Amino acid sequence: MKPHAEAILSARGIVNRFGKQQVHDHVSFDIMRGEILGIAGGSGSGKSVLLKTLVGLRRPDAGTVTLNGKAIEAVAPADRASQIGVLFQQGALFSSLSVAQNIMLPIREYTRLSPPEQEMIAAMKLELAGMSADSGVKFPSELSGGMVKRAAFARALALDPQILFLDEPTSDLDPLTASGIDAMIGKLNQSLGVTVVIVTHDLTTLFDHSRYAGAASALRSAMDSRVPPRTAGAGGDGSEEAKPWKRISAISSKACSSSAFPSVPRSSQFGS
Questions:
Q1: What is the number of alpha carbons within 13 Å of residue 187 lying toward its C-beta?
Q2: pLDDT at 110 (0 to 100)
Q3: What is the 3-class SS of the chain, one letter each residue?
């Protein structure tokens, strides 16, 4: 019998507000060790705000986040960096640093490894992200969009984190490049056992990793966070502006049946 999966990170009663606008209304869920969890929602629905809250970059207005049973704000920066890796939306690479230097930055900040050891680890992480070690000498401006994502992946993996947060990992990429990123995410999860949280509005990515085909019964978590009606232009005419208009849902790979509807390959976006 398999042991029960344990939660690596838990959110309880998360509330985030910007002025009078409440973005998250008592959101609670668990991220189980070794799973791939997709957080989906439209643009502006608060996905990135939720991600920043989960990794400790934003303190919520109410609620708690725990990492391995410990409050996220009580985890020392070095411990947090060694347990959590983050891929930001646009890669967030430092333009003045080479790819290798970007990857070595957290290693230099949080470890006492020698420069040669840091360089060796950077080369290993590049290979893991599907890039050659030679690409480490390039600067972000010399990389394609897909390579920027891969380089940012390599940096997120620099300290061998237990959990990866990926903010729109396939946004602004062509279908073939996005498929390569999707394959890399699956490989990291399966070969290294890394827990992965994907924040995205890309349904193909959710299909690929969560085997999700829109069946409500396949949802493990009940995140159903709604943004209140906009005040500007909202009226009683039943217009879009007058209604709750955003939604976030969480889809777990471990809760979805493998017999769900087959996903639509990205190649079909090219047409036949």
A1: 11
A2: 92
A3: CCCCCCEEEEEEEEEEEECCEEEEEEEEEEEECCCEEEEEECCCCCHHHHHHHHCCCCCCCEEEEEECCEEHHHCCHHHHHHHEEEECCCCCCCCCCCHHHHHHHHHHHHCCCCHHHHHHHHHHHHHHCCCCHHHHHCCHHHCCHHHHHHHHHHHHCCCCCCEEEEECCCCCCCHHHHHHHHHHHHHHHHHHCCEEEEEECCHHHHHHHHCCCCCHHHCCCCCCECCCCCCCCCCCCCCHHHCCCCCEEEEECCCCCCCCCCCCCHHHHHCC
Residue owning tokens 């996903």? 263
pTM over 0.90, yes/no: no
* Per-residue pLDDT, 71: 92
Write out the two tokens for 126. 């590049």
Report residue 182's pLDDT band, with 50, 70 and 90 as the boundaries: confident
Angle between helices 99-110 and 115-128 (to 10 degrees): 120
Single out the residue of 134, 135, 159 nearest to residue 149, CA to CA: 135
Domains of the chain and any CATH numbers: 1-68+194-231+241-264 (3.40.50)
